[in-house]
Amino acid sequence: MDDLKLVDITPNNVMEHGLFCIKNVKNPEFALKKNWFLQSYKEGLTIKILYNDDGKQIGYIEYIPAEFAWRPIDAPCYMFIHCMFIYAKKDKEKGYGSFLVKACEEDAKRQNMKGVCVMTSNGTFIANKQLFIKNGYSQIDKLERYELMVKKFDPDSQDPQLIDWTKDREKYQGWNLLYADQCPWHHRSVEALKEVAKDAGIDLKIKKITNWQEAKKAPSGFGVFSLLHNGKLLEDHYLSATRFKNILKKELKLDINKRADH
């Protein structure tokens, strides 16, 4: 790994290195993610970008003290990994993911934390737990499609746990969309869904999550994107206009059938 370079992104170098998942600094979504980064940086957010020996970005990791994580977790004195990614298929299975996880663990130890935790899933936009099992993590909690994995530095430390994001869904009656700028692709998805809803005559209530406190109370495990209809979670990650149209057709058909039954 001597040929790799790991760069910590700061307010001073963010325009030079970007934010990995969105590289074009002129893109409006970059500005949204950057503003979110600057806000969260004050709360201990770390973004590290991994470069190869050719100076090409090949991966990144984003983590934060779990008290300030934008996910429904309760894990005092733990570090929490929001997101990590190795971009190219040819760079996978080379140990780069483990390299990034180790860098996070070293930071957590320097800050005298109890350990590191992360949410995993076989579904979209969340790392697969096999990487973490390989690095000594154990599953400590599970809800819906999400597993909470933890690596304790002190085995006697209190277990982190998931916050039950399912219990308050009933309050989201009608069509509801909640999102945050933690992912730069949310804004584009929200704008697309807004247009689809308008064309379909649907009253889509849109709420932007602006702080970690709101994210911890979100009605989905992902925390920063939730599409709900009458208390039912339909999607927990950004989606396309086409996907939303298909969801609308299915849900509206169910509504019609329910009315017919009554």
DSSP strand tally: 13
Number of helices: 7
Which structural class do the helices and strands define? alpha+beta
General form = globular
- The pLDDT mean sits at 92
**Element string (H = helix, E = strand):** EHHEEEEHEHEEEEHEHEEH
Strand content: 25-35%
Major sheet description? 7 strands, mixed
- Give the full name of the CATH homologous superfamily of the largest domain: Gcn5-related N-acetyltransferase (GNAT)
CATH class of the largest domain: Alpha Beta
Any low-confidence stretches, pLDDT <50, length ≥5?
A: none
- Enter the CATH topology name of the largest domain: Aminopeptidase
How would you portray this structure in words?
By secondary structure, the protein is of the alpha+beta class. Helices cover 31% and strands 27% of the residues. It contains seven helices and 13 strands. The strands form three sheets. The chain has a seven-stranded mixed beta sheet with strand order 1-2-3-5-6-8-7. The protein has a four-stranded mixed beta sheet with strand order 11-10-12-13, covered by helices on one side. The chain has a two-stranded antiparallel ribbon with strand order 4-9. The longest helix has 21 residues, at 241-261.
Kindly list the characteristics that best describe this protein.
7 helices; 7-stranded mixed beta sheet; 13 strands; alpha+beta; 4-stranded mixed beta sheet; 262 residues; Glutaredoxin
Show the helix and strand layout.
Elements: E1 5-8, H1 14-17, H2 28-41, E2 46-51, E3 57-65, E4 73-74, E5 78-86, H3 96-110, E6 115-120, H4 129-134, E7 138-143, E8 146-152, E9 161-162, E10 175-179, H5 186-200, E11 204-208, H6 212-216, E12 225-229, E13 232-235, H7 241-261
Parallel strand pairs: 5-6, 10-11
Antiparallel strand pairs: 1-2, 2-3, 3-5, 4-9, 6-8, 7-8, 10-12, 12-13
